[in-house]
Design a protein that fits this description.
- The chain folds into 3 domains: 207 residues, 4-Layer Sandwich (Glutamine Phosphoribosylpyrophosphate, subunit 1, domain 1); 210 residues, Rossmann fold (3-Layer(aba) Sandwich); 68 residues, no CATH class.
- It is built from 27 helices and 17 strands.
- The strands form 3 sheets. It has a 6-stranded antiparallel sheet with strand order 2-3-1-9-8-10. It has a 6-stranded antiparallel sheet with strand order 4-5-6-7-11-12.
- The radius of gyration is 24 Å and the shape is globular.
């Protein structure tokens, strides 16, 4: 796992100052504390920071190939690199190293862009062809590894693993993108391919981009997508065995490392499944790491301990205080862009614990997206059945009318929030699911914005991108479309961003076996009732894992990392909440109505309404704006 950065000039062979590239890589030194390198040639400069995982002494980067014609900087892991290497050797390629980086170079020399389809793993890389004077940028299928890029005023394009590396370039103008603010308030993160800094983009998951020395800035091309239009005709038993075989292969392939390796263990279905399969494949005790909370209602450590005992792991646990608000500034530094998922705090804690014992940790990320494990997906599937049984006009008139007059009950469990359900059913499935994914609804956002911000945004609404994505999805059912949205939008924007930045901040490599693309493609072919049955998501996976895991792990309610943010803003952070409208960086942007911000703070502090999640969003946006734009 590493950090990459570089500069490429379009239309000229202007020299690239290696000191500038080095400054960019120094900004992301946490991603690669074990070494660094810079390579330059007329019109191009590539930089690298290395976290040594495989072939520790023999694969420094930037790396050349074919007598130096090809040069690469690479962040990630290719899990099938040994099989690819053997195939390439039969085609005459000779290797000098024992790692996966040189295999990418040889694969590109042999197959060109088509090499991407042969790579099994997580990656973002930049490959320069000196003969063609082209720079090839690529990102893995699901977006596990990040890649930012921007066009600069001198005709160059700069790229990097994190935004902070681009920010050190003196030609990058730090101007905010108001549409990214709208996106962030809607979803709690800035989704691909936008960035909070105007003119900076993220290369979207499953895309590549070729930059040529002669020509303008090209548009990215999609090289991978997940297809939900096919259905398997196998029976449940056959599908269980196929799923287990894929999961075993995914786990085993991610256990290859020349450094200490372990796993995150929360005690939930996903991480417990990964640990079970690791223990099955390993000759020694698996190292597992988990954190617990000092508040009983938030703590899952007993479940993690039970799994650790069941599989005799070398278990390391730590109890952390639920009040971690003193680490908010640390989060803002790690994520650069505003990021409102409060579970980033405990994620950082478990990464810190893991790094004390291992350099690589396997996680359970991805199963909820692939196999329909989120409650919102299960609810959406049920709502779609109702939509299918009622005419759209009747739904809009009758259910929409009932929803408008029904009292709001955010405090109630989701099944009892009839207002939310009725309003969702009155709309299309795509509109309803966009609302389920959103953190702050459009009406609330509009009420918070200033007149000038409303004028700047015009008719732009963040949800439109997600609705369009779902309507264009290669899918057969509403459940398909919901999962497609989660895989393409939510997963790279929230889950993978959270894990990548938190793990890389402490020099830890996180690997996600349940995001193996073969598992994703297999799951997309499952009939709906193999994913959701009797109100249970991930039905096939849970059924398959019954031979490994106890019932109280498989079928208890999902908890996840929980942070008591509402209590914080009625206690130690009440002053931060009150400052939003008048003394914060946000108050100086002219994006928001200061009185509206003050009102939500006072309502929350007085206990009249629960605005904790919204205030947390605004606080993280404030911290980001202060750092990026100086308030």
């Amino acid at each position: 796992m590493c950090g990459i950065a570089g500069i490429f000039h379009i239309g000229t062979a202007k020299p690239v100052d290696p000191v500038r590239v080095e400054a960019m890589t120094d900004a992301i030194a946490h991603r690669g504390p074990d070494g660094s390198g810079v390579w330059t040639a007329p019109g191009v400069g590539l930089g690298h920071r290395r976290l040594s995982i495989i072939d520790i002494a023999g694969s420094p980067q930037p790396m050349g190939y074919a007598d130096g014609r090809l040069q690469i900087v690479f962040n990630g892991e290719i899990y099938n690199f040994r099989a690819l290497r053997a195939e390439l050797e039969t085609r005459g390629h000779v290797f000098r190293t024992d790692g996966d980086t040189e295999v990418i170079l040889a694969g590109y020399a042999q197959w060109g862009v088509d090499c991407l389809e042969r790579l099994h793993g997580m990656f973002a890389f930049a490959l320069y062809d000196q003969a063609e004077r082209t720079l090839f940028l690529a990102r893995d299928r699901l977006g596990v590894k990040p890649l930012f890029y921007t066009a600069l005023s001198d005709g160059s394009v700069a790229f990097a693993s994190e935004l902070k590396a681009l920010l050190v370039h003196p030609l990058l103008r730090r101007v905010p993108d108001e549409r990214a603010v709208e996106d962030y308030l809607a979803f709690g993160y800035v989704p691909d391919d936008r960035s909070i800094v105007h003119g900076v983009r993220k290369l979207a998951a499953g895309h590549h981009l070729t930059l040529r020395s002669a020509g303008g800035l090209a548009q990215p091309s999609r090289w991978w997508d997940v297809d939900f239009t096919q259905r398997s005709k196998a029976n449940a038993g056959e599908l269980e065995e196929e799923l287990l075989a894929i999961m075993r292969e995914a786990v085993v392939s991610r256990m290859v490392a020349d450094v200490p390796l372990g796993a995150f263990l929360s005690g939930g279905v996903d991480s417990s499944s990964v640990v079970a399969l690791m223990a099955e494949a390993s000759r020694r005790a698996v190292t597992t790491c988990s954190i617990g909370f000092d508040e009983t209602g938030l703590d899952e450590s007993d479940y993690a301990s039970a799994i650790a005992d069941r599989f005799a792991t070398d278990h390391h646990a730590r109890v952390v205080g639920a009040d971690q608000f003193d680490r908010i500034d640390r989060l803002a530094d790690i994520y650069d862009e505003p990021f409102a998922d409060a579970s980033a705090l405990p994620t950082l804690s478990v990464c810190e614990l893991a790094r004390e014992h291992v350099t690589v940790a396997l996680s359970g990320d991805g199963a909820d997206e692939a196999l329909a494990g989120y409650r919102r997906q299960v609810f959406h599937a049920a709502e779609e059945r109702v939509r299918g049984s009622l005419p759209a006009r009747l739904r809009g008139t009758l259910l929409g009318g009932l929803g408008a007059i029904y009292p709001k009950a955010d405090w109630a469990p989701r099944p009892l929030r009839a207002k939310t359900t009725l309003l969702s059913l009155a709309r299309s499935g795509e509109e309803g699911y966009a609302d389920a994914l959103s953190v702050t609804g459009p009406d609330t956002r509009q009420a918070l914005y200033s007149d000038s911000m409303r004028g700047t945004l015009g008719d732009y609404r963040a949800e439109k991108r997600l609705i369009r994505l779902m309507r264009d999805a290669p899918a057969r059912s509403g459940l398909d479309r919901a999962q497609y949205a989660d895989l393409k939008f939510w997963l790279p924007g929230d889950i993978l961003t959270k894990t990548d930045r938190a793990s890389m901040a402490v020099g830890l490599e996180a690997r996600e076996p349940l995001l193996d693309h073969r598992l994703i493609e297999f799951a997309a072919r499952l009939p709906d009732n193999m994913r959701v049955r009797r109100g249970q998501g991930k039905w096939l996976m849970k059924s398959a894992m019954e031979r490994y895991l106890p019932e109280d792990i498989l079928y208890r309610s999902k908890m996840g990392f929980v942070t008591p943010i509402s209590a914080w803003f009625r206690g130690p952070l009440a002053g931060e909440a009150r400052a939003m409208g008048t003394r914060s960086a946000l108050a100086r942007t002219d994006w928001f109505d200061g009185e509206a911000l003050e009102r939500i703070a006072e309502e929350h502090i007085a206990g009249r309404r629960d605005h904790g999640r919204l205030i947390w969003q605004m606080l993280m946006l404030d911290k980001s704006v202060e750092r990026l734009f100086g308030g």
